[in-house]
Design a protein that fits this description.
Layout: E1 3-7, E2 10-13, E3 18-25, E4 32-39, E5 46-51, E6 58-60, E7 68-73, E8 78-83, E9 92-100, E10 108-109, E11 113-118
Parallel strand pairs: 2-11
Antiparallel strand pairs: 1-3, 3-8, 4-5, 4-9, 5-6, 7-8, 9-10, 9-11
Length: 119
């Protein structure tokens, strides 16, 4: 059974930091690219960051560059999202997702973790 379980969300004051984790099971994690997405209330889900299966390629949304960093540990089946200098507009539910090497879209999704940034 495929599972992606996010953790690390919570309430943080503006300017603070959080590190989200996503633990994968039920598939060969090291063969999948991973992504983070977020959805704020009343808004569409948006891309946050991407990392290739080997960590050789990463990408962060332009608006988040310099504050957010994605990484992974294939030995732990875990992908991370380090978020610094958080702003109230970063408040959202954050989801991790997995995409197979030959897939055009993300196949597996987690249930999400809430991040709330106070002003």
């Amino acid at each position: 059974q495929v599972q992606l379980v996010e953790s690390g969300g919570g309430l943080v004051q503006g300017g603070g930091s959080l590190r989200l984790s996503c633990v994968a099971s039920g598939f060969t994690f090291s063969s999948y690219a991973m992504g983070w997405f977020r959805q704020a209330p009343g808004k569409d889900r948006e891309f946050v960051a991407f990392i290739s299966w080997s960590s050789g390629s990463t990408g962060v949304a332009d608006s988040l560059e310099g504050r957010f960093t994605i990484s992974r540990d294939n030995a732990k089946n875990t992908v991370y999202l380090q978020m610094n200098s958080l702003k109230p507009e970063d408040t959202a539910v954050y989801y991790c997702a997995a995409r197979g090497r030959t897939s055009a879209s993300y196949e597996y999704w987690g249930q999400g973790t809430q991040v709330t940034v106070s002003s």
